[in-house]
Amino acid sequence: MSQSLIFFFLRNYYSKTGQHGEVLINLSTREGIKSDLDIVDSAMKNAIYQQAKIGAKQQALQYSVNNYTTTKENTLSAQLVIQDTDFAKEIVDLNQTNVLN
């Protein structure tokens, strides 16, 4: 009779591990199936929770990137307006100086 085993990496959830650290899930008895599937279910819930946390952090980072990009664009735009204003003022001053001389 062959063993009914499935390999998962759930070290934090289960103490029966194989030679390479893999978790051994027992599917040979009804009790083993229920017990081990409860562990798999718990691990999946934790993985989903962790995925949601990562997604929230990713969203916050994306918001920060978008905010930074907008701030950078606004700053560059303001610098160009200031440069254009200074240039126009210098032309007016130069023309006044030329007219007066």
TrEMBL record:
Primary location recorded for the protein, binned into one broad class: other
Gene3D superfamilies: f41 fragment of flagellin, N-terminal domain (1.20.1330.10), Flagellar export chaperone, C-terminal domain (6.10.10.10)
Transmembrane segments: none
Organism of origin: Selenobaculum gibii
Compartments it resides in: Bacterial flagellum
Any one GO molecular function term: structural molecule activity
Family note: Belongs to the bacterial flagellin family.
Alphabetical list of Pfam families matching this protein: Flagellin_C
Listed GO CC annotations: bacterial-type flagellum
Protein name according to UniProt: Flagellin
Top-rank taxon: Bacteria
Record domain Flagellin C-terminal: where: 37-100
Record keywords, A-Z: Bacterial flagellum, Cell projection, Cilium, Flagellum
